[in-house]
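Task card 7
Instruction: Convert sequence to structure tokens.
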Amino acid sequence: MRDSVLVVCYDLPGEEPLQKKEYHRFLKFLKRYGYIRIQKSLAIKHLWNKDSFGYELKRLDEYTPQEGQVMVWNLSYERYSSAVILRGIPIPTDQLRNQIIEI
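Output:
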């Protein structure tokens, strides 16, 4: 596997002050380390090689709150870019691959 796309799906609680703090810490981590939020609870990141996946999992584990659910998929770039968009605006896959992120 060469380059791939890491997909992170999360459902985190935010009722209590500590939960809100952990949630915002997690979102800050995603933004700081190059993840692109494509929906409210879905983020993606381009990985250049297969070794990056293990490294990203360790970092995600460090920042993931204790409560809630976080799921991770590692898709080949070709598989990710072949997604069928039924409604809405397609996510520019060239932008993802080139790591050009507009904030």
